[in-house]
Amino acid sequence: MSSLAMELLVQFSSGDFAFSGELQAFWMAVQGAMMVRLGPNKDRSLNWFHAFSLSVIGGFGGGWLGFIWMGRPSSMLSNDLNMASCIVAFILVNYTPMDIGFKCCNNIMGKIATVVFAQLFRSLGVAKFVMVCFETFKDSPSAYYPIPVFGPILYATLLGNMGGFVLKGFNGHFANGMPWPVQNGLFCATFYHFYVNDQTGPIGIFLRKSLRMAHFLGFKDNQTFALVVVTMFMQVMGILQMPTFLGPSFTPFGSAILSPFRDSSTWKTGEKDTAYSTAQAEKKKRRRGKGTVKTTSARIHNSKDKQS
């Protein structure tokens, strides 16, 4: 990989470019507004303030509630950029002449821009929350491992699930099994935490020895490499899970974890199931059909045995 490509990759993954914060906040707000416009407010029946409140929580649920777990003020109160972005995005999506704002955000280029910058916001959030929790508890690990294990991972995972908890409730968020934000958070936070923070434990040592690409590709340190891996994973998955491609029900971790039907963490209305989710649903139906046939055959044999 050329030095220029490496530099651009690192700059993007770390959010080190012009107007990075503004772009991330704006497109996260757009994603929240579009989720509501395409979902509960599809028929434009909601009161504007109700729709706006849902949009804010949909885009920045973690920003509102995530910091509370560490006794810190919400970034929605300490950072004017986030709330300002929510206001601008809500107006753009819902109240522009001829609905041009909604149409621009709903075409393929608008969707890709939304995914790219919203996923960058999330990946940087995962890394930040892991480090905040680790720095808080690093001097008091358990007697069984040299660093705190579960706290930083769970804290970063909660970040991406606060909106789902608030908007759908605990049961609704987990109605289809393990939602993608939980899978993504556990995978990315676990990798980042052990790769960066576990300097003496067997898991961190094993990961760094197994993934020698950090030095081979010329990354300056392990933290930069881990951040690039997490960012690129979330970018690729964000694109693949667009309804245009494999859909929000796609997961690389197997259909046993997540229902092959619609992911409860995503409002997806007015869209047909993708080929992937349709194929997975057909497989599930066939498996159920085979189980029904076996059960029926067993009952017939049992009844014959009783008659004889």
UniProtKB/TrEMBL annotation:
What ranges does the record give for the region Disordered, renumbered to this chain? 265-308
Name it.
Uncharacterized protein
Superkingdom: Eukaryota
Indicate the transmembrane segments per the record: 48-69, 81-100, 112-131, 143-167, 225-246
Keyword terms of this UniProt record: Membrane, Transmembrane, Transmembrane helix
Question: What lineage, starting at the top, does this entry show?
Answer: Eukaryota, Sar, Stramenopiles, Ochrophyta, Bacillariophyta
